[in-house]
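Intended use. Records like the one below are meant for learning the mapping from a protein sequence to its folded structure. Do not use them to infer anything beyond what is encoded.
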Amino acid sequence: MEQKVNTPEENYDKLTINELKKLCKEKNIKGYSGKKKEDIIKLLLEKDKLTNIKSTNIPTNPLINIFNNIIESNKYIQKCKSNKTKDINSLSYLINRDLSQSDCIKLGICLENILSDLICKYTNYKNIKDKNKKGEKEKDIIFINENSKKVFYAEIKSNINLDTEKSKATEEKCINIKDELKKKYPEYEIIMLLVATRYFTKTIIPSNIYNKYKKINTDNLVGINEFLNKLSIQYKFNNEEEYASVLNIIAKCAFK
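Structure written out for the chain above:
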């Protein structure tokens, strides 16, 4: 009977974590300290793969070898570590799963759509958002209440902790759209909000972020609870855990 040959991964799996660390040291592998056994095995397998590529007889561009040698010995690269820490000021911070940059953007769009549905179902406002026209700034949420003579415009942001240039652009966009709406609906009250969807209430928005939006009245920079209150929706989140639970349901349904 032909004897089964174990894969490198199976061979490594038989070793203790201390034996694996010793191998890492022998193979000049960095970054194994403090890692779990399965992560150390991944480092060893990656090193083996790189070694196999180098030892192959297939002719390769010498420039590749030059780069490989420099990459392995480069002190900056040896010190580099992956930073998977979530931005505490981002909506994705409240999600119990890793999200790509694309998923973070989609999550914000999902929430924007859900908030629009909420307005349609629980208020007398009518959605008047048009398809985005070339050369015009897109309005996230815009509704009208013909009975109370109010136009409700909200700019939805998953993260408002922006650099100076971007925060200024966001602020000016809100102000300019409000001015445009005043001209278009002169007999209506224009309600404009910049909604920081990371926060269930404005009371927990850090003061350093508020200071980035001085041109916008503090009443106009809000969290989710204040957004609902402005629409006279008589519901609110009592704490961040409740709000996070809803966001995680959205993420679960959106990213199956």
